[in-house]
């Protein structure tokens, strides 16, 4: 099967991005896989530490492996926002393709030191695993937020990015370029959109020349997405929009069958709602 590195190399050459979607149950998992297979696109599935705690680390890896084995499908698993070396090691042992060591809340030098330690630990288990490092504060929750979290909005500079990448040798970099985790209520209920600094993305990409990930994709302006991808973003993460769709779908499924108790008969609308979001984002990220 093609490796994640090969898929990212191809995406980078084609100036498209691979969609990364979080899940924590079979509704999300089945929706993401169905959307990707419909469009015959490679896809990344991610789980934060909280999501992994709910699904089980090895259980999530087994789900992904089952799809790979059955369809020989380019589906990849990422340990999203991992804060401890122990959790990174557990994901590496379970067979994850990528691990994000997130030291972005630490002082810069400490982030470098911890990320280096994480890389050493992960690569000694399996050198093929891609390790992503994060710099710049973009918040931490895929939730509906009352306000922009303190400290969000300071952009990563090309110099900082280069220093971090040279010192850590990460495979993938996640910078702060106007993106933010979560959505403001004005994004959920109104037309407010996150705007990205495209010039800064291009400057950072030119300085680091490694794969870059755009986190916090929910609620982002579509044209900014296109330009960010053309300027060097090769992976794009979306979570909050999927969580909102999940909730709406579960509520619709319950309302449509008030006496039903079989989960699989209730949860169909939730799968459809999540699939719709994933499909629309995959189409955008893969457009040339
Ligand atoms: P959003 O929840 O804002 O889409 O961010 C998701 C993300 O970046 C997960 O790593």
Please provide a written account of the structure:
There is one protein chain. By secondary structure, the chain is α/β, with parallel strands linked by helices. It has 13 helices and ten strands. Bound molecules: 1,3-dihydroxyacetonephosphate. 1,3-dihydroxyacetonephosphate (13P) is lined by residues 22, 80-81, 142, 181-182, 215-218, 237-240.
Short overview:
This protein is α/β, with parallel strands linked by helices and 288 residues long. It contains 13 helices and ten strands.
Average pLDDT level: 98
> Biggest sheet, open or closed, and with what strands and sense?
8 strands, parallel, barrel
Class by helix and strand content? alpha/beta
Strand order of the largest sheet: 1-2-3-4-5-7-9-10
Contiguous runs where pLDDT drops below 50 for at least 5 residues: none
What would you call the shape? globular
Which kinds of small molecule does this entry bind, naming each only once?
A: 1,3-dihydroxyacetonephosphate
Radius of gyration based on Cα positions? 18 Å
Q: In whole angstroms, how far apart are the ends?
A: 25 Å
- Secondary structure: helix percent: 40-55%
Binned strand content:
5-15%
Individual helix count: 13
User: What is the number of E strands?
Assistant: 10
Order of helices and strands: HEHEHHEHEHEEHEEHHEHEHHH
């Amino acid at each position: 099967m093609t490796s994640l590195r090969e898929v990212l190399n191809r995406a980078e050459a084609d100036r498209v991005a691979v969609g990364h979607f979080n899940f924590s149950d079979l509704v999300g998992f089945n929706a993401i896989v169905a959307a990707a297979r419909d469009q015959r696109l490679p896809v990344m599935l991610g789980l934060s530490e909280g999501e992994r705690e709910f699904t089980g680390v090895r259980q999530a890896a087994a789900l992904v492996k089952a799809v790979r084995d059955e369809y020989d499908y380019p589906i990849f698993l990422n340990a999203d926002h991992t804060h401890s070396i122990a959790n990174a090691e557990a994901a590496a042992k379970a067979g994850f393709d990528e691990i994000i060591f997130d030291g972005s809340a630490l002082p810069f030098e400490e982030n470098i030191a911890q990320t280096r330690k994480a890389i050493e630990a992960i690569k000694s288990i399996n050198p093929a695993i891609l390790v992503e490092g994060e710099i710049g504060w973009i918040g931490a929750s895929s939730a509906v937020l009352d306000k922009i979290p303190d400290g969000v909005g300071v952009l990563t500079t090309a110099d900082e990015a280069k220093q971090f990448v040279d010192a850590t040798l990460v495979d993938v970099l996640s910078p702060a370029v106007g993106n933010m985790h979560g959505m403001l209520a004005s994004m959920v209920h109104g037309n407010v959109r996150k705007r990205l600094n495209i010039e800064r993305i291009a400057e950072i990409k030119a300085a680091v020349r490694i794969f870059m990930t755009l986190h916090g994709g929910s609620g982002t302006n579509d044209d900014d997405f296109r330009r960010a991808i053309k300027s060097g973003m090769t992976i794009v993460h979306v979570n909050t929009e999927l969580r909102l769709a999940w909730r709406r779908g579960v509520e619709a499924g319950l309302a449509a069958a008030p006496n039903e108790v079989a989960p699989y008969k209730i949860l169909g609308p939730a799968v459809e709602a999540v699939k719709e979001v994933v499909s629309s984002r995959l189409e955008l990220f893969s457009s040339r």
